[in-house]
Amino acid sequence: MNIGKLITIWMADANDQLIKFEGKVTFMKIRSVNDSDYDIISPQINEWWSGRQMSDMLPKLFFTHFQDTSLIAEIEGGIVGFLIGFLSQSYPKEAYIHFVGVHPSYRNQKIANNLYRDFFQMIKKEKRSIIRCVTSPVNKGSIAFHKKMGFKIVEGDTLVNEVSVHLNYDGKDGDRVLFIKKVD
Amino acid sequence: MNIGKLITIWMADANDQLIKFEGKVTFMKIRSVNDSDYDIISPQINEWWSGRQMSDMLPKLFFTHFQDTSLIAEIEGGIVGFLIGFLSQSYPKEAYIHFVGVHPSYRNQKIANNLYRDFFQMIKKEKRSIIRCVTSPVNKGSIAFHKKMGFKIVEGDTLVNEVSVHLNYDGKDGDRVLFIKKVD
Fold first, then answer.
1. Where would a tag sit more exposed on chain A, N or C end, judged by fewer CB atoms within 10 A?
2. Which ipTM score applies to this complex?
3. Per-residue confidence (pLDDT) for residue B3, from 0 to 100
4. Do the Cβ atoms of B65 and A172 come within 8 Å?
């Protein structure tokens, strides 16, 4: 691979007309978070969440004390996604994914998918076999994504748009969809 | 002790006039948190913090996944204080105190003091020797309390009211005073 270099690809279309593609080869690196990632990510969070006030939900402590289970996706040195997770200290077989974000310009490129897969691998090494996370019932994209990644919905109190929801479960906007995945 | 029973105490004042005290003997119990404590504490937090919007800063995950290092102070079955802490997963010698609150009617009764002392003991058993926490520069009561509990201030960027502050350290209102305590 010629990372960072311009490459040219010629293809023939249905009419045997030659089409030229020109572009740069990039690659994505996934690494652990560090303290200074907070200063880059925190000011962008509300924008990544389309204006929802979310940055207060992710204090710096997660970037300081849960570095080994939290991941950054980088392309050419720029942060394009992150996953903040930790090992449950109450439940020795469980891990928890608290916060996941992908830069709006880098959606639908399997970045979250890759972050989750790396997290699953890491969790297995830590001898944890259960992963939990929660999302808001309004976040249909998140619900679909978690189902695709093999998470099951933990049955709640009521159905909202055919999804089982735990009413008044957590602080902000209360209701939550709870997910669980076994990684054996 | 006659817990929960009315007792009477007679005392003489300076003029040998007898004064009668009547009251109930209560005691405080400190125990680990559980999931359902969240439902009791979360709706009270903004009130305990004199109207500051603080409840979003304490999502339920802390009551679920950090139960063994988080404490509830109870008097007669009612929650009068709590401490939410965890073991750092990045720094194997460190523990962190995230959130501490005392019911406004039970201030100045050494409840936070007792919660911290129990946390220190617990941390020693876990072979951790460093405790960190942060507070806002505006919270003068918290700064004085931590100094009294043996915490040192980690030197920051600037002085605010003669206290060393890390500017723009964390999300909400940015600036923070950082504390550290060694428990050997």
1. C
2. 0.84
3. 54
4. no
